[in-house]
Amino acid sequence: MKISRIMWYAGTVFTTLAMLAASTTAAAQQQARTPHVRTYADSTRAERQRAANIKSFRGVAVKLNTTPFALQNAFENARAANPKLSRGNFIAANVLADNLGARHPNITALAILSSLQNGRNMGQTLQSLGLSGAEAKQARRAADRDTKDADKQIKNADKRAKEADKCAKEADKRARKAAHDNQ
Hints:
By secondary structure, the protein is an all-alpha fold. The chain has helices at residues 2-56, 58-63, 68-81, 87-100, 109-117, 122-128, 133-182. α4 (87-100) packs across α7. The longest helix has 55 residues, at 2-56.
């Protein structure tokens, strides 16, 4: 009887220790896996954000005769130099430089961005580069209008492409149905 009682206690102790070890091991494995999942999710989120940014540069890229990738890379480089730089100010600087560069050779995107980095707003920047207050305001409005028009053209082109794709799918569906009915 004593031996069976000792064996029962030993079995209970060993079972408890085994369960404790298994739960500890499972918790450790879960903790080991968790950072990888977060890193993957963060990188996927960053990649989605980058893709969205590239897509948002399409209209302006057409206007500036460049690619969305080139604008995205230039924005990232400018943002590294000036963390407070917004996407809107970056686009405005490039459109203003494109619009005004022929008449005012000292107005470049780099000059505008460096002035913004020094804490000036867009109007102050343009005035420091040689425009009057009224000219700066007019140039800014023209740049905003050009940006909106370029974005609108891209959205309309996307809408037309989507409609064409929809029509092509419907025509394909009708052709398959007609072929099935003829059999």
